[in-house]
TrEMBL record:
Name of the protein in its database record: TetR family transcriptional regulator
Gene3D superfamilies: Tetracycline Repressor, domain 2
Keywords (A to Z) from UniProt: DNA-binding, Transcription, Transcription regulation
Pfam families from the UniProt entry: TetR_N
Amino acid sequence: MSIAVVRKPLRADAARNVDKIILAARQCFREHGPEVPLQTIALTAGVGPATLFRNFADKEELVLAALNRQLRESVDPVMADALADIDATAGLLRVLEAIMAAASADANLLGAVAGRRELLTGITGSLMDSMSVLLGRGQGQGTLRADISMTDMFRLLAMLIGVVDTMEPGSDAWRRPLALIEDAIRTERPHRPLPAHVPLPAPQLQGPQFT
């Protein structure tokens, strides 16, 4: 399990400092990009560098803590509602939407662990367990393909998160790939148009032109 998840209980003042640092990290990564210095984050949080390093050994640990906080705040409530929904497939798709919205909002945090995204396993374990429950229910209800495994779902989710690298932070360009994934995993393809096409960012348009 990730060190970003397992933490000793903190005194009230120390817990407040951790909250301030995580909030500042999310703000700074959004405003300055994945290379933002830890000193900038400490300054934004209103704490000294020593306080930051007392709570987070390095930038990687801070990034994982910030991503974990984002998942707990924005995805966990959606998952709870999905698990209570009679329609498991609809619930699973809402969870995927919530994950992608969070990934887009904090794209620069993901960028800070680019190439080492296996680290995310520690903060997504419980999420994948719940997705497995929804997958099984959807298959039992006949709305999800019976031949899909959780290995497939893990890889499909990894593919979707990779979409974040091909779009502007905060964009909803992920909605079209997610709709294509929905078409692939449902037993019956939905009768609806795909979401609007969003072009690739200009720096990625070198070489062959994409439309």
